[in-house]
Automatic annotation (TrEMBL):
The keyword Cell inner membrane does not apply. This is acetate--CoA ligase. It comes from the Bacteria. The gene is acsA. Residues 473-551 form the AMP-binding enzyme C-terminal domain. GO terms for molecular function: acetate-CoA ligase activity; ATP binding.
Length: 574
């Protein structure tokens, strides 16, 4: 916590095309931003209309909204086309009897159909629940059960992971694929879309009506359904403008999947609310594919994650040199700490300052950012955006002075703040336990100049490759394996992935430690929960440290792993 490393990367003239940070903050008023929207006069709103239809109707009908490519497809979808395809999907849902407020889940790989389904769901006022395609049966079941979803849009390949029989409220399974033979309760997406009308009477909703449900991990219990409302568009639009710096001519690429909040707030809403052209690349990560995506589409603004930048860095400078990346003019990062080394490398090979941004599923939109016109201090997340205030608090809610580490908190409210945790009001209240503040669960400090520096999570949540994994969810899966008696899961620091998942396991009688067993246990989690939730490292122990109430002490496991003192053991079992 010292400012010796107060290395500064100055903003250049081209970065300074926005007002200065201080100027933008002074006298800032969110209600001024509202005037941008068509609903400012009527009060009734729909996110999908503001993002797509309004532009299609205002001269952008033939502008490309989406450049999509994967190994087999390469398509450009205009604003006009996106309007009609999402209208069609809205009609498909209406015909099935889906209504405003119903939950509709989308569980499929990134394709133009996914975006049409997501926007169509929103157009009829239903609440969309995007699910990452890597989820396995247990993860899908937990989320559909908790939300009581009435419909799911998926593919024949992913269908086996949807336990339809056990989900009585799930009435419709909409299958996206070729030659679908729809069985009972199933719907052929393509067939229905071909027949559906292009015209849709949009459901005009209130600003506080439900928009999207993103499930995310905590340190205890099942994943939490973070609930966002249409009002979030104010922040998505505004941060798209001032943080992503989106302008009408921009070709913007957010590399995140819509199964995570970055892939919706900044992969769908922010770019389209700003009328930009959005790039989506399907398939797996490969450095060459990523660079050719930038080159081919002439990407100007690029939003990615530290883990991806580190993988690109390890692919070598020679790989960068094979491509023409000169279209890039603004690069940003989110999800985990952005290493100063990566910032320096970005400057060298892309000739770009990588701008770190901090926010969370719960915050719905960016909050602490390196504003384009601001000098960057590598390693710092930046400063709170105009219209928001951040502080470091002690556990009693007192604001701490600069350079003291504590709870990173945001003054409530802001437009895109979550409005509830689905089915769990107590969990929701926990975030607001210090009056007037949202408590993030991150620890940080602020330097004398107001830059915020991330220090770690206060709880046990693991951040692996920018994805949040709850240790409890992994432990629960592990103990379902026939050989596992007890399991404790921690994040272990890793140079490429930020953290990897490490499991400490005690075995049931009759099972012996072996490498085969380790592999089998990891596979069990991979196939039952999700690949990114599987432990990359397993260590067998005769016994795990537990409190007298039987809670596994992850703090002790972490201390063992890092070779640190175990601290206060007064609550340990024996
Ligand atoms: C957690 C939120 C919404 C963005 C994607 C992740 C960590 C996020 C940063 C950053 C250091 C970061 C925090 C936060 N995090 N951005 N710039 N520097 N840490 O969303 O899955 O809800 O995770 O990611 O720990 O609490 P998420």
């Amino acid at each position: 916590m010292n400012n010796e490393q107060a290395e500064i990367i100055k903003a250049t003239a081209t970065d300074a095309n926005l007002r200065s940070y201080e100027e933008a903050r002074s006298g800032f008023d969110w209600t001024e931003v509202e005037k941008h929207f068509s609903w400012h006069a009527t009060g009734k709103v729909n996110m999908a209309y503001e993002a797509i239809d309004r532009h299609a109707e205002a001269g952008l009908r033939d502008k490309v909204a989406l450049y999509y490519s994967d190994a087999t497809r390469d398509e450009a979808v205009t604003y006009g086309k996106m309007k009609t395809s999402s209208n069609k999907f809205g009609n498909v849902l209406r015909r099935l009897g889906v209504k405003k407020g119903d939950r509709v889940f989308i569980f499929m790989p990134r394709t133009p159909e996914l975006y049409a389904a997501l926007l169509g769901t929103i157009k009829i006022g239903a609440i969309v629940g995007p699910l990452f395609e890597a989820f396995m049966e247990q993860a899908v079941r937990d989320r559909l059960e908790d939300s009581q979803a009435v419909a799911i849009v998926t593919t024949p390949e992913l269908l086996p992971r949807v336990p339809v029989k056990d989900l009585p409220h799930l009435k419709h399974v909409i299958l996206v694929g070729d030659n679908i033979q729809a069985g009972p309760g199933q719907v052929d997406f393509k067939g229905e879309m071909a027949q559906a009308s292009d015209e849709l009477a949009i459901e005009w909703v209130d600003r506080e009506d439900g928009l999207i449900l993103h499930y995310t991990s905590g340190s205890t219990g099942k994943p939490k359904g973070v609930f966002h409302v249409h009002n979030a568009m104010i922040q998505h639009y505004y941060t798209g403008k001032i943080v992503l710096d989106l302008k009408p001519g921009d070709v913007y690429w957010c590399t995140a999947d819509p199964g995570w909040v970055t892939g919706t707030s900044y992969g769908v809403f922010a770019p389209w609310l700003n009328g930009a052209t959005n790039v989506v690349r399907g398939g797996r990560f490969k450095p060459q594919d990523w660079y050719s995506t930038i080159e081919k589409n002439k990407v100007t603004v690029w939003y990615s994650a530290p883990t991806s930048f580190r993988m690109l860095m390890s692919a070598g400078d020679e790989t960068v040199e094979q491509f023409d990346l000169s279209s890039l003019r603004h690069v940003l990062s989110v999800g985990e700490p952005l290493n100063p080394e990566v910032v320096r490398w970005g400057l060298k090979v892309y000739n770009q300052r990588i701008h770190d941004t901090w926010w969370m599923t719960e915050t719905g939109g960016q909050l602490i950012c390196n504003y384009p016109s601001m000098d960057i201090r590598p390693g710092s997340m930046g400063k709170p955006i105009p219209g928001t205030e951040a502080a470091i608090l002690d556990d009693n809610g007192n604001v701490l002075p600069p350079n003291r580490m504590g709870n990173l908190a945001i003054k409530t409210p802001w437009p895109s703040m979550m409005r509830k945790i689905w089915n769990n009001p107590a969990k929701y209240e926990e975030y607001f336990r210090l009056t007037g503040w949202y408590v993030s669960g991150d620890s940080a400090y602020m330097d004398e100049d107001g830059y915020f520096w991330f220090q770690g999570r206060v709880d046990d949540v693991i951040n692996t490759s920018g994805e949040r994994v709850g240790p409890f969810e992994v432990e629960s899966k592990l103990v379902e394996h026939p050989a596992v008696a007890e399991a404790g899961v921690i994040g272990k620091p890793d140079p490429l992935r930020g953290e990897i998942i490490k499991a400490f396991i005690s075995l049931r009688v009759g099972f012996e430690p072996s490498d085969e067993l380790k592999a089998d246990i990891a596979k069990f989690v991979k196939e039952g929960l999700a690949a990114h939730a599987a432990p990359r490292e397993i260590e067998f122990k005769d016994k795990l440290p537990k409190t007298r109430s039987g809670k596994i002490m992850r703090r002790v496991l972490k201390a063992w792993e890092l070779g640190l003192p175990t601290g206060d053991l007064s609550t340990i079992e024996d």
